[in-house]
Design brief:
With 462 residues, the chain is α/β, with parallel strands linked by helices. It has 15 helices and 16 strands. The longest helix is centred in the last third of the chain and has 19 residues. Bound molecules: adenosine monophosphate and zinc ion.
């Protein structure tokens, strides 16, 4: 039985999907105007643990959006669009910025062994669905027009703010009131569609029944989530910062439009913080996977660090803690190596697997699951082959390449990369070094690094 902490209701609940044959999960994806920092990636790691745990029991449809337009500098509706800011910063078009940082995002995501979503949906490719949703809200009387856009009137939605709770909402309204722009009717009202400024041509803009402009960030997620997953989702995830505004607004729009409950389980991950405070993309004080690599850490050391803290506790990042995670991971792998290559499935292994699964099912208790792996390695009651079977299973969830020292998981290499490798092996046999180098570059371009060893080519993920 899977139990998850549901932000709506603030307690752990048994997870019961609407249909056991198709669990639906939507995760708020990256805003692609800059590199993802390791804080963002902590959230994707916890979502990956959730996806892997769900998949132990159910088929999962996992949708993630890519916010490539409409996310303004403040989560309220003030300031510039982050994409246009990124474009100005780098002297490129907003479209090129989106393409570049999205591609980089997936590289980091893969390097941390997060499983790819079933559907990746880019906001700019779903403008029609967003317009339709705004039209529905307009027909139902939830919208009003100001000089800069079409807004959602939160006073018309009785349950507004239920996700955060009344007390928090009062605080939110107080805060929002301070920066409330003149034409908003209520401090918590938010833009569904923003008009392009009259004096400046935006790079990303579309026609709409209300005028040329672009969608608000919140409507993007509602429109895309419901397009792929229907009116009611089983699970919606994101970082804890989204509870207050983004997810509160998603509920308001979606439920007002459909008259149905939008999400059954809201699951939020706590922040990664720095001793000096928040890690933020816009503030520029951020650590990326590439920074970690430059400092000599493998990305999975960071995954190990994240697994050592429960997803609902804040995690303070430091290089000392990353050092210790990297060391533990290395020790873990060499302990696994000592076990030899044989695996044996026995009732003992099954009993251990049950304990491991129970830890993950208990609101994703990865620290406990990790501790169980150490425990099994130290156990005097299991044979080496039994221990190896336990670790092999654990790694289907932990995804830390625990068996890597003894066998490279070849299956992970995509077939097109394998084809390049085979071609390169043939070129080297024929002593065609130029072709061999070209193929090495092509393999690198596809995200893999190939090394020549006495035993032949060895390939690792970039
Ligand atoms: P963004 O790319 O800013 O839209 O954020 C992508 C995801 O990262 C969202 O789910 C955020 O809630 C999450 N996030 C942002 N900052 C942090 C952080 N410091 N720690 C953990 N998650 C974060
Ligand atoms: Zn979202």
């Amino acid at each position: 039985m899977i139990r998850l902490y549901n932000t709506a209701g603030r307690r752990k609940e048994e997870f019961v999907p609407q249909q056991p044959t198709r669990v639906t999960m939507y995760c708020c994806g990256p805003t692609v105007y800059n590199y993802a920092h390791i804080g963002n990636l902590r959230t994707y790691i916890f979502e990956d643990l959730l996806a892997r745990t769900i998949r132990l029991h159910y088929p999962l449809v996992h949708v993630m959006n890519v916010t490539d337009v409409g996310h303004l500098v403040s989560d309220g509706d003030e300031g510039e669009d982050k994409m246009e800011l990124g474009a100005a910063r780098e002297g490129k078009s907003a479209w090129d910025i989106a393409k570049f940082y999205e591609q980089k995002f997936w590289q980091d995501y893969d390097a941390l062994h997060c499983t790819r979503p079933t559907v990746i949906s880019r906001a700019t490719e779903h403008i029609a669905q967003m317009i339709d949703l705004v039209k529905t809200l307009e027909e139902k009387g939830y919208t009003y027009r100001t000089s800069d856009g079409i807004y959602y009137d939160t006073s018309k939605f009785e349950r507004y703010g239920a996700l955060v709770g009344r007390a928090h909402l009062d605080g939110l309204q107080g805060g929002a009131r301070v920066e409330m722009s003149g034409e908003k009717r209520n401090p918590t009202d938010f833009a569904l569609w923003k008009f392009s400024p009259k004096d400046k041509k935006r790079q990303m803009e579309w026609d709409s029944p209300w005028g040329v402009g672009f969608p608000g960030w919140h409507i993007e997620c509602s429109a895309m989530a419901m397009k792929y997953l229907g009116h009611t989702l089983d699970i919606h995830c994101g970082g804890i910062d989204h509870v207050m505004i983004h997810h509160t607004n998603e509920i308001a729009q979606s439920e007002a439009a459909t008259g149905k409950k939008y999400v059954n389980y809201w699951v939020h991950g706590e922040f990664l913080i720095l001793r000096s405070g928040k890690m933020s993309k816009s503030g520029g004080t951020f650590v990326t996977v590439d920074v970690l690599r430059e400092k000599g850490y493998e990305p999975l050391a960071y995954r190990y660090l994240c697994l050592g803290a429960h997803y609902r506790t804040q995690l303070e990042f430091s290089y000392e803690s990353l050092d210790s995670a990297a060391k533990s991971l290395k020790n873990l792998r060499s302990a696994v190596k000592q076990l030899g290559a044989e695996q044996q499935l026995t009732p003992n292994v099954q009993a251990w697997k049950d304990k491991f699964i129970a830890a993950m099912e208990d609101d994703l208790n990865a620290p406990k699951a990790l501790a169980l792996v150490w425990e099994v390695l130290r156990s005097a009651d299991l044979t080496a082959a039994e221990k190896r079977a336990c670790v092999a299973f654990a790694d289907t969830i932990l995804a830390l390449d625990l068996l890597v020292e003894t066998e490279r998981p070849r299956a992970e290499i995509p077939t097109e990369v394998q084809a390049l490798l085979d071609e390169r092996a043939a070129a080297r046999k024929a002593k065609d070094w130029k072709k061999s180098d070209e193929l090495r570059d092509a393999i690198l371009h596809a995200g893999y690094v190939v090394k020549d060893t006495p035993k032949g080519q060895e390939v690792t993920k970039k």
